[in-house]
Specification:
Blueprint: H1 3-44, H2 57-60, E1 67-71, H3 73-76, H4 79-95, H5 106-110, H6 114-124, H7 137-155, H8 166-170, H9 174-187, E2 199-208, E3 211-220, H10 225-228, H11 236-243, H12 248-263, H13 273-276, H14 281-291, H15 307-323, H16 333-337, H17 343-359
Antiparallel strand pairs: 1-2, 2-3
Helix pairs in contact: 6-7, 12-17, 14-15
Biased composition (Polar residues): 43-52
Region (Disordered): 26-54
Family: Belongs to the parvin family.
């Protein structure tokens, strides 16, 4: 054989071995990643931990003595937890409506600090010195740092436990994000009703001596409505219920008299607030009478035929209350609409009627 042919054959063999070696290296690295993932899954799914957790690669690729916290999938599907997230999302969207910001997913829409910045500025009335738009991770974390420093500075003096950090929020840790939003909602007395006693299971994965260790911890996100919201805004009805519940009927009668004094102008009469105010029609008409304006019939449903139309009426009445100078009602429209309306929702409604009556000087 000629030297040229042998040289070509050697180069071809070297090329083949090089490719084979590269493939083996890539397979080895892939196998190492796979082994680490399997190690993490085994730690989570061990007999002592009867939970099935789907781990992402980043959840198991930990440095020595590092740890990662994640929400257990079973808690993610919990009905009360889903309701809590929906209430928080609706609240954020309502607060930031003028900013034309729409949140659909707490993990994906909150982590970069933009929504938190706008929400804090709206609630506190304080402008933060941060860049409006940040695309880089460094810029996002800098914004989060500024926002969370302002939040913590506000909450710490009131005894709040800080269950969030820049890293946890930016890592899309849903538990940390929900903790933060619940704290803001409670501190600023948001006009929402948070579901009570919402707890979740959190998986904590730690790496010790090269081995992954998993543990489960229960985190309580909300307690009772009274503990979360009521103690911030104790009103006359709270005191009435605590000390003189027998006087409640007297107040109801006075309110009915006051309401009829105005609704009679339209040849309407109320005998029971709980049911006759349930669809929002009388409430809308009453707001117009008290504020001396005509409410166009196309703005509400005079004869509502379904749940959504009734909720629309009550929500519209709440808007009219705010236009009249009252704070946004703490009750939710859907809570006021149902005929079996809860006591606290009724009291929110009663209290606002009293404000209107005092404003118009006609409570009898």
């Amino acid at each position: 054989r000629s030297p040229t042919a042998q040289s070509g054959r050697m180069k071809k063999d070297e090329s083949f071995l090089g490719k084979l070696g590269g493939s083996l290296v890539r397979k080895k690295k892939a196998r190492e990643v796979s082994d680490l993932q399997e190690e993490g899954k085994n730690a989570i799914n061990s007999p002592l931990q009867p939970f099935s957790t789907d781990l992402h690669p980043e959840d198991t690729l930990l440095e020595e003595n590092a740890e990662r916290t994640m929400l257990d999938p079973s808690s993610r599907e919990d009905g009360k937890f889903k309701e809590l997230m929906k209430v928080l999302i609706d609240w954020i969207n309502n607060e930031l409506e003028e900013e034309r910001i729409i949140v659909k997913d707490l993990e994906e829409d909150v982590y970069d600090g933009q929504v938190l910045q706008k929400l804090f500025e709206k609630l506190s009335g304080r402008k933060l010195n941060v860049a409006e738009v940040t695309q880089s991770e460094i810029g996002q974390k800098q914004k989060l740092q500024t926002v969370l420093e302002a939040v913590n500075e506000l909450l710490l003096p009131h005894g709040w436990a800080i269950e969030w950090s820049v890293d946890s929020v930016h890592a899309k840790n849903l538990v940390a994000i929900v903790y933060l939003l619940v704290a803001l909602a409670m501190h600023f007395q948001a006009p929402i009703r948070l579901p009570e006693h919402v707890s979740v299971q959190v998986v904590i994965v730690k790496k010790r001596e090269g081995m992954l260790q998993a543990s489960h911890v229960t985190k309580e996100l909300t307690t009772t409505t009274e503990m979360m919201m009521g103690r911030f805004e104790r009103d006359a009805f709270d005191t009435l219920l605590d000390h003189a519940p027998d006087k409640l009927n007297v107040v109801k009668k006075s309110l009915i008299t006051f309401v009829n004094k105005h609704l009679n102008k339209l040849n309407l009469e109320v005998t029971e607030l709980e049911t006759q105010f349930a669809d929002g029609v009388y409430l809308v008409l009453l707001m117009g009478l008290l504020e001396n304006y005509f409410v166009p019939l196309y703005n509400f449903f005079l004869t509502p035929e379904n749940f959504d139309q009734k909720v629309h009426n009550v929500a519209f009445a709440f808007e009219l209350m705010q236009d009249g100078g009252l704070k946004k009602p703490k009750a939710r429209p859907e809570g006021t609409e149902v005929c079996t309306v809860c006591t606290e929702d009724l009291f929110c409604l009663y209290w606002r009627l009293i404000f209107f009556s005092l404003k118009n000087g006609c409570l009898v």
